[in-house]
Design brief:
By secondary structure, the chain is mainly β. It contains no helices and 28 strands. The protein has a single domain, classed as Neuraminidase (6 Propeller).
Length: 301
């Protein structure tokens, strides 16, 4: 359900390590071991990249621009496993280490050095409120980061290279509109940011340097094609952006090259928007295989 954005562009603001966009979007999980990739600026069908170490649903992913890391997921049970790929080099995933907690339907955000694993559910599908973090360039086990502001799963994510944002989710009280954020380089708890236009879970998110976009998801009436956006530097509620090409889509992944946002999955559809131009999505192409139940996405060079 998650992505990070990669292109050697330093982030504005103080204290950040920069964010990264990239030309290549990589899509993982969603009930398949197959990893696909696209060139984000060139519409067309996805190409086979390699395979995950195991078949999983409900993954999350992030990137530092060269390495993508995949967290958790569900096969016969929840998993602590962290896998990684080198985004520029096609091939199978390798073992990275382990998260502190076995997680399903978690979400990940990152800057150019650190990935943060947020929320989700445990092996009994009980909400997990803890957050872990990793240094993406260094394989090894995760460390404790803090706790989420609001428990919910699964959620959409984006980052401006300093702050990481998570949106929506399903909690004990029902589907949520809440958007929260963390400062990625400072361990601590999540903070309330604003709200989506529509309460939903199973949405996907990504961003450019200033704007985050969230697409699809499950609302109370079923799957939706809604796209919202936020200005990440401004604490304000999300605004309607447009619609995805398919009327009902959820459990998606999303990736960005800093210009386009690409939404994938449920089951093979890929479509895209120009992040700074509101409007409806356009067909991009198709995945090599059907994906649902929590497709993960990451982007890099």
């Amino acid at each position: 359900m998650a992505t990070l954005h990669n292109n050697a562009v330093p982030a504005s603001g103080s204290g950040g390590t920069g964010m990264w966009y990239g030309d290549r979007g990589v899509f993982l999980g969603g009930g398949s071991t197959v990893i696909d990739y696209i060139t984000i600026a060139s519409p067309g069908n996805a190409i086979d990249f390699g395979d995950l170490l195991a078949l999983k649903h409900y993954l999350s992913a992030c990137s530092n621009g060269s390495r993508g890391v995949v967290c958790g997921g569900y096969n016969s049970s929840a998993s602590t496993a962290l896998d990684y790929i080198t985004i520029a080099t096609t091939g199978n995933a390798s073992d990275f280490g382990d998260a502190l907690t076995a997680r399903i339907q978690t979400a990940m955000v990152s800057d150019s050095t650190r990935g943060v694993i947020t929320g989700g559910a445990d092996a009994s599908w009980v909400h997990v409120t803890s957050m872990d973090y990793i240094t993406i360039a260094t394989t090894g086990n995760a460390s404790a980061f803090g706790t989420v502001f609001s428990a919910g799963k699964p959620r959409g994510t984006c980052s401006d290279g300093i702050k990481g944002f998570t949106a929506g989710g399903y909690a004990a009280a029902g589907r949520q509109t809440v958007i929260e954020y963390i400062t990625i380089q400072t361990t601590g708890n999540g903070v309330d940011f604003s709200d989506l236009t529509l309460a939903r879970n199973g949405l996907a998110g990504c961003s450019d340097a200033t704007r985050g976009v969230f697409g699809g998801g499950y609302a109370d009436g079923g799957s939706v094609n809604t796209i919202d956006y936020i200005t990440m530097a401004t604490t304000a509620n999300a605004v309607d952006f447009g619609d995805l090409t398919v009327s009902s889509r959820s459990d998606l992944g999303a990736a960005s090259d800093g210009v386009y946002a690409v939404f994938v999955g449920d089951p093979t559809t890929i479509d895209y928007v120009t992040i700074q131009t509101t409007g409806n999505a356009t067909d991009f192409g198709d995945l090599t295989t059907s994906r649902g139940t929590g497709t993960a996405a990451t982007s890099g060079n």
